[in-house]
Structure formats: C-alpha cells, structure tokens
Design brief:
Elements: H1 6-18, E1 24-25, H2 30-39, E2 43-49, E3 55-60, H3 69-87, E4 94-98, H4 101-113, E5 117-125, E6 131-135, E7 143-151, H5 155-166, E8 170-179, H6 184-190, E9 194-200, H7 201-210, H8 216-227
Parallel strand pairs: 1-9, 4-5, 4-7, 7-8, 8-9
Antiparallel strand pairs: 2-3, 5-6
Length: 228
C-alpha cells in the first residue's frame, strides 16, 4: 500500500492539531477502537446516505460488534476505562443511551463499571411497562452519563437526553465511540455538556491506513469529507 501524499499528511496534521481544541478524546484508545470497528465490519467504506440526508464515504454500524465478541469487549473495555477516569472527579450514578445502536453495547459497559443502565425508547411503549424509559428507575438528582455510537450534528443526543431531564436527572457528560467531526461536539459543548469521544474518525482512518488495512484513497475520501 502506498504512503499518503504530502497533501494528505498535511490533512492528518491539521486533524492532530484539532485534538487540542477541547474534545476529550480518551488517550490510547484510537488503535483499539479502529481495530474493533474494522475487524467486526462496523466501519464500512463506499457511499451511504446518512440521517441528515447527505452522502457519506463511510458508515459506522455498531450492530456489527454483536457478531464479534472480542471486538465488542474491546470497545466496552475502552469505554469503561474512560468512564472510570471521569468518576475519579465526578459522581456518575447511572449510564443511559437511546435505542438502538448505543443501547446494544451499554449493558456490556455497565457490567464493567458496576453501574445501572437506562435506555430511552424512541417512542413511548403503550402496553406492559409503558413510557419511554426502560431499565433502571430515574431518581431526582441522578447524575447520568449519556452514551451513544457516534456524534454527527448532535441533535439526536439532545432528543435522547430530554426525557431523562424531565424525570429529574442531570446529564453533564456525553460519550460516543466515534466523533464524525461534523460540528456536533461544538454544538453540545455550547449547551454546557462535556463531550468525550473514544476516537475521532480522522484518527481512526489514519490508524487503519498506517496499519495497511485501508487504502490511501479510502483514507483521503474520509478526510476530504470532514473538511467540507
């Protein structure tokens, strides 16, 4: 596999500089996350229509982790280590996510940090145990960490957090597996949230290219996309 061009390397340098602008990326996690996403088939390259309606040269589907236990454990362990770091200085009572993708691996993370977890349904359940909340009960004043698969524009995170806040919970920290670097982090931080990413997509493709797992063309397609 040929090396990145000088222009591509400059692109990678600019992304590296970006890491000092406030995003809380977990140290040492990039290679583990990159390997897990690539090895399980969660990270796909091509042309994909995303939620906003735009076309993307890549797509991340965390459901693929369910077919690769080692990859699932690797991502869960990385997230758990990051949560333990946060808990050194701040109280976290429960973990929360919104269906579907983040909620699929939330229990695996919760087991490793010994915290109850909560899943917010996209729509209220009309039978049995009704409402939008599944799992642990929310108590007034609970400090929740909200977990999800990726962050793009950030809007879905706000939608998922609102039902928790309506029940009296406080959500200060948001954690995602991958930051797609499309402005969502900045929007959420302006709203007062502390945003943590296990990895940024630019660093993921850099790690995969250096490991000769993806081509220069694939790496550059992603880098050019996030620069738009």
């Amino acid at each position: 596999m040929k090396a990145l061009t000088d222009r591509s390397c400059k692109g990678f340098k600019s992304m590296s500089a970006y890491s000092h602008q406030g995003i809380r990326e977990m140290s040492g996690s990039v290679e583990k996350v990159a390997d897990a996403l690539y090895g399980s088939g969660c990270l796909k390259f091509g042309s994909f229509k995303i939620k906003s309606g735009a076309q993307s040269p890549y797509y991340i589907d965390l459901a693929g982790l369910l077919s690769e236990p080692k990859a699932l454990c690797s991502v869960a362990e990385t997230a758990a280590d990051a949560i333990k770091q946060i808990r050194v200085s701040e109280r976290i009572d429960k973990l929360a996510s919104i269906e579907l993708k983040g909620a699929l691996i939330l229990p695996s993370i919760a087991c490793k940090v010994d915290l109850p977890c909560v899943v917010v349904r996209k729509e209220a359940k009309a039978y049995g145990v009704t409402g939008r909340i599944a799992g642990a009960e929310i108590a007034e004043g609970d400090n929740l960490l909200f977990f999800d698969d990726v962050i793009s524009e950030g809007l879905s995170k706000v939608e998922g957090i609102k039902p928790l806040q309506e029940l009296g919970a406080e959500v200060r920290h948001l954690m995602v597996v991958v930051d797609r670097e499309q402005g969502g982090r900045e929007k959420l931080e302006k709203l007062g949230y502390k945003v943590h990413a296990l990895a940024r997509i630019s660093d993921v493709v850099k790690a995969l290219h250096e490991a000769q797992k993806i081509s220069e063309e694939q790496a550059n397609a992603v880098l050019n996309y996030i620069k738009k």
